[in-house]
Design goal:
Helices cover 17% and strands 38% of the residues. The chain is α+β, with helices and mostly antiparallel strands and 149 residues long. The two termini are 31 Å apart. The radius of gyration is 16 Å and the shape is globular. An eight-stranded mixed sheet has the order 2-3-4-1-5-8-7-6, covered by helices on one side.
């Protein structure tokens, strides 16, 4: 049986404060923590929660997009077929390096404008040398538009 996990990405203006809050809320440390990005990968609830550092949160709130992480590229292709059968506009990405991970994905937008992605992670961390606390020198970081915004 296929395994699915809900993915939620939040825009945040202070990543350290947000990481501290969600670490307290879920009782676990993030599995990925960069200067401009953090990820919590939870089993209970089954949730992939990420945070992208930005300068300020716009009036639409802190929500960047929503997603479902699936277990294979075949499952992403099945989603594409369903979306196309429903005549939904899609945006497909293959082998894209997004959120420091190599992914295949498809994007669709709900009637209210919320963007959803169905994606599979093929390489979990494409920049381990950039982990906060690593021995490598850290570049000066400024809040920028996230890769998947």
């Amino acid at each position: 049986m296929a395994t699915f996990k809900t993915h939620v990405a939040l825009n945040v203006t202070n990543l350290d404060n947000s990481v501290a809050f969600y670490q307290a809320m879920f009782g676990v440390a993030p599995v990925k923590h960069k200067a401009d990005y953090a990820k919590f990968d939870l089993d209970q609830p089954a949730l992939n929660l990420t945070m992208n550092l930005i300068d300020r949160v716009e009036s639409r709130g802190a929500l960047s997009h929503l997603g479902v992480q699936v277990d294979s590229t075949e499952t992403v292709k099945q989603a594409i077929e369903r979306f196309k059968a429903a005549e939904l506009a899609t945006f497909e990405e293959q082998d894209t390096d997004c959120c420091y991970a190599l992914q295949d994905k498809v994007w669709v937008t709900d009637p209210d404008g919320n963007r959803w992605e169905i994606f599979v992670v093929k390489v979990g961390d494409t920049a381990p040398e950039q982990n906060v606390g690593s021995a490598c020198p850290q570049p000066q970081v400024q809040a920028i538009k996230p890769c998947c915004a």
